[in-house]
Structure formats: structure tokens, C-alpha cells
Amino acid sequence: MKSIRTDIGYQECINVACRARFDVAEPLFECPTCGDLLDVRYDWSQAVLPKRLNDFEAKWAVPGDPLAFSGVWQYHELLPFAPPQNVITVGEGKTVFQQADRVAPYARMNVGRLFLQYEGMNPSGSFKDNGMTAAFTHAHLVGATRAVCASTGNTSASVAMYAAVDGRIPAIVLVGSGKIAYGKLAQALDYGVRVVEVEGDFDTCMRRVKEVAKELGIYLMNSLNPFRLEGQKTIMYRVIEGLLWDVPEWVVVPGGNLGNSSAFGKAFQELREMGLISRLPRLAVIVAEGADTLYRIVNQERLAWNDGRVDDARIAAFYDQMDAENRRAKTVASAIEINRPVNLKKCLRSLEWTGGLVEKVSDQEILDAKARIGAGGFGCEPASAATVAGVRKLRDAGVIDADDRVVCVLTGHPLKDPNITVAYHTLDDEVIAEKYGAYGFTKAPHANRPVRVADDLDAIVAAIQA
Ligand SMILES: *Cc1c(COP(=O)(O)O)cnc(C)c1O
Ligand SMILES: [Zn+2]
Question: pTM to 2 decimals?
């Protein structure tokens, strides 16, 4: 153990009936007492905290220091489980916060009120790097020799990248066969990680990876790992930084395994406890219609965090019913094609803390929004576009005000899933309906079709002038 900060940090079970505590030096991904999720918690009285959030601006002046350069570790004081000299960083989190005036009208927002947080600008092309730098740092501190994850794609790309750069913790990734977008698989292969394609979907891989981690004693890199979520808190610190240390009215995030929504609620709740902010934004978690477990649990089953007394029996019954009906997640947004979100209960807690809500959008709405995001900015992958599609829907329902400040977290880079983007812009609607109709994606009203011409100057000029 290399001097992990056991004086400041500890792990605690989120189950109020259990509340068991464990050392931060233990590599755990569930409570050994009751099996529930764990939080990383801190005794803030032992920590060195800024008096005001803009004290963090001092870090901008020391770009040569990796701790100040990383968009995650520049907030080290707010996730102080590791000694600063031990962090493993590749310069993640240098992402872009953009006022998206050209996308705002599509989201039915007033100009100046829609903001996009481009987490696709991370080194491996998704927000996952924010979490992985923290998890790899923890893995090192506890002496892990191997790492493993289950993945819909981006987790594997991120784990593979850190394993490749660091070189001391070889990694294994489990992906569902045929379930991973090409850009993501390309990365995992290129970074040299061992890729195991399991017959089945993400949920199958997730169940198996826990067994593998236990059986072989391998460090687990999925968002069940509470240290990963500590890194993902910093996405919200950077949003507040983008608003010159102010809190927006809404934060909108796609919901897959619900690690982000869990981390974001914790980030804001902690800042309020420290007196660094005075109110929390409302969290809107957007899921795909074809992967709507959270939507059903919250809006139909009416299950809630309920001060920590979650009705576990009803969640179990919900999943039994899902299996009995053989309902399986199906969406073109592969990053959120998940039946059993592992951080469900932490997400319910975030929704309670923030007065948040859950909305669902169709694959058609996701891909149309994706085209508009691309046409007005740097673009994103399908799962990320659920956010803007969700805002549009929540505006129409009168839930979000056109003058609220709304921040959509664009979780992944547009090149992660080039196949669906090229299909959208090049295929005729009949072909789309035939190929993707089962997903509810049948037309491309915002397609930017390439123009085919002969090798002839007049024809080329005519195509340009058309
Ligand atoms: C992992 C991922 C998600 C899902 O995030 P959760 O934190 O698991 O809810 C969404 N979008 C992209 C691009 C992802 O890679
Ligand atoms: Zn417990």
C-alpha cells in the first residue's frame, strides 16, 4: 500500500440499514456485508479545501504541472483519496464547455441558454477517462496487478488506453458479441488489451465480469467501482467553471449504467455541504425508449430513494417481470443499451437530492438530434444526443423553461460510431426503414447527402452552386 489517504477517506455502504464502513485501501465493488453499492466518503475536516470555488483558478497559472493540467486532478482537493504524487493521468478532462447558440433553437431553448459539455474531447474520446484516471490511481495504490471491465465500448477503450500508457496493469475487457460500435472496438484492439467477446449482451458481460473479478482477484474498472465515480464528479466542477462558478438550472445526461447521474448528484451535494454552492441544479436523466428501465422504475413503478429506504423487493420483482417477458434493451445508442443499470439506487438518490426527473426518447429523436448537434458544433455519438432530444421533449412538455440555463453532457465523440452517422446521411429513407425499422429509425429529415457527379468540371460546378 503506497500511502493511500486512510486518514481522510473511507468507503461506506449506501444502504441506511447497513452503513458498513471500509478502508479506502480495500478494492471493493460491493458492500461485503449486504451487497449494496459503496460510496467513497471523506472527513472534510482533515482536508485542505478552497474557501471559494474560484480559488481553483490558481491552477490555470501552472500548466506544466500534470496535477494542474488534468481537468480531473485540478480538482484534487475535492477527491482527496490519493496523495497528489501518486495520481495516474494522461491529461484527461481538458474538455470543452460551449454555449451552443446554433443548437439552441432545435432544443427549443432561447439563444444563450443551451450549453454543451463536450466530454468526447477526452483522450479516448469519451467521458469515461474522467473516471478511469481515478480508478487506475486507486488500483495502483492498492497494488492491483490486472484490471478487468465489462463494456458497451467506451469503458473498454478507456481502460485499454490507461493500461497501454501506464504499462503496469494489463487489462482484459469483456464485450457482448456484435454489440460494440466500430470506433470503440478499434481502440481496444489498437491499444493492445485482451478483448473477450462474450456471446450475449452488456448485462451478460456485467454479470460475468463480477464473477471473473472475484474468481481471479482482478481489479474491477466498471462504474460499480466507487473510485471511478469520484473522477466523474469533476465533469460537474468543469460545468460550474464554464459558467464562471455558477450553477445552471438543469444538467441533462444520458442514462446507461447511471454512473454519471450518480456522480453528478454526489458532486453537487458535497459542494453544498461544504458551503461552496448554495443550490443544486435539477438533473434530467434521458434514456432510450428501447432501454427504459430507469424510466419505468421512476415514472411508472414510482420507486424512489426515499431517504435511503429503497424498496429492494419491488426492484427485484421488476427485474423478474422483465426476464419473464423477455424484454431486452434495443437501441442504436449502444452506450446506453442496458437492462439492469448497476448504479440504479445511487441515481435514485441523485434524483432526490436534485429534484430531478427521467425522460425517454426514441432512436429517431436521438439520431435527428445528433444530426442537429453535429450541424451546430463538434458532434457526438448517438447516446450523447439523447440529451438534446430530451431537452426538446421537456420544453414541449413545459417542464424546462426556454430561459433556464441547460447544460447537456455530450458523453462521446462523433467518430465512435461512424456507421450510424454515415447511414443517416447517405441512405434513402426506404433503405433506412428496412435496415433500422426495428429500432424505430425510419427516416433522416436532417440528412446532409453527398452529391455524386461525373468527372466533369461543369457538373462539379453545378453541384457546388446548386
Ligand atoms: C458509458 C456511456 C454512457 C452511459 O453513462 P452511464 O454513466 O453509465 O449512465 C453514455 N454515453 C456514452 C457515450 C457512454 O460511453
Ligand atoms: Zn452494506
Answer: 0.97
